[in-house]
Write a structure and sequence with these properties.
The chain is an all-alpha fold and about 350 residues long. The protein is built from 15 helices and two strands.
């Protein structure tokens, strides 16, 4: 909206030209989604609590302290996150940019899957939501639509290419197999964030750090001068994703206000799937798919721990970890929840620095 006002009335009010700058609008997007969350968060949480008398169903096989301490806490906090993103998106984004609409579609579509999953858990009063096969099929179908839309916008030479970090000219063209690769990126990103969301504040801060990193990546990828200087792929129009990342950063900060220990609300699958799907989409548009795996390495570790646990148990009948995902393993070992959360945040910051260094070290 503000971009339209600026383009229409800048000749009369020169200060409106500020709204044409991506950096200014990103700052506005962060503050808007943050303040919306802070102002309306309590109202939304009270409403969610009224619909969920027993709160989010807790896993029976989970840590004992979860059953004691987290019982009664409402879920579906992703509704607060998505609402904050939407308000900020329509105020600050350049609505003529196709990439922001594709990203919004990914965010909302995965959020809808998460909402259905959360709703079924609440309705059935069980920690089991949608069937795993149903979830995956829906996620694959949505991812395919997202990838086809991105594919239709990118230049021919970039449609199926994958850049290898730390190497300037090491680029692979996956051809038709890029669709499989890209589906794995989006679906994997969404479910990795979902698996990480198990402790108060554990997932939302890494999501915010990854979003900050991709705000920077999107900005330089969409700027022909910066991308040429750093010798990274220039994607015309991708700079506008910086503003979208800003909406996520602000909403994440606002949600953290209520999700900080002891959490008043959980984001649920509504939040984790939508945020993970958006991050995966950002990486494909900016052609930094592998960099996402580096910056979001914490999400990868959590996912790998689950895979290792399942494979080991099926093949040998033995478990590698006391419990998966990885954060529950450390809980079982006696680590305090706050210790696990803060140390995992530190790991994410280090991985983000490593991932961003790939932009220069080539």
């Amino acid at each position: 909206m503000f971009v339209y006002i600026a383009e229409t009335y800048t000749n009369y009010f020169t200060f409106l030209n500020l709204f044409n700058y991506i950096t200014f609008r990103t700052g506005g997007a962060i503050l808007t989604s943050l303040f919306f969350s802070l102002i309306f968060g309590e109202i939304i949480i009270k409403y969610l609590s009224s619909l969920q008398p027993i709160g989010q169903p807790i896993r029976d096989d989970g840590p004992v302290n979860h059953i004691l301490q987290k019982s009664g806490t409402p879920t579906m906090g992703g509704i607060l996150i998505l609402t904050s993103i939407l308000i900020s998106f329509f105020l600050w984004s350049r609505l003529t940019n196709v990439y922001v609409w594709i990203s919004l579609l990914a965010c909302l579509s995965f959020g809808l899957i998460g909402f259905l999953d959360d709703y079924k858990k609440i309705y059935s009063k069980s920690s089991k939501g949608l069937k795993a096969s149903t979830r995956i099929i829906l996620q694959i179908l949505i991812s395919l639509i997202i990838i086809l839309l991105i594919h239709s916008q990118l230049p021919n030479e970039l449609k199926s290419s994958v850049n290898i970090p730390f190497f300037k000219n090491l680029i692979f063209d996956f051809g038709i197999f890029f669709f499989i690769f890209a589906i794995l990126i989006i679906v994997g990103s969404a479910n990795a964030v979902n698996l990480t969301d198990g402790l108060d504040g554990l997932a939302i801060v890494p999501v915010m750090i990854v979003a900050m990193s991709f705000a920077f990546i999107a900005y330089i990828s969409g700027n022909i001068n910066f991308s040429e200087y750093l010798q990274i792929t220039y994607i015309q129009g991708s700079g506008e994703l910086t503003v979208f990342c800003g909406t996520i950063i602000g909403s994440a900060l606002g949600f953290l206000w209520f999700n900080a220990p002891p959490a008043k609300v959980f984001m649920g699958d509504t939040g984790s799937l939508s945020l993970g799907g958006a991050l995966g989409t950002f990486s494909i548009i900016t052609k930094h798919e592998i960099v996402l795996a580096i910056i979001g390495g914490l999400f990868v570790l959590e996912t790998v721990s689950v895979v290792i646990q399942v494979v080991s148990y099926k093949l040998t009948g033995k478990r590698i970890f006391q419990m998966a995902p990885l954060h529950h393993h450390f809980e079982k070992k006696g680590w305090a929840e706050s210790t696990i959360v803060i140390r995992f945040w530190i790991i994410t910051i280090v991985l983000a620095l490593i991932g961003l260094s790939t932009l220069k070290i080539r």
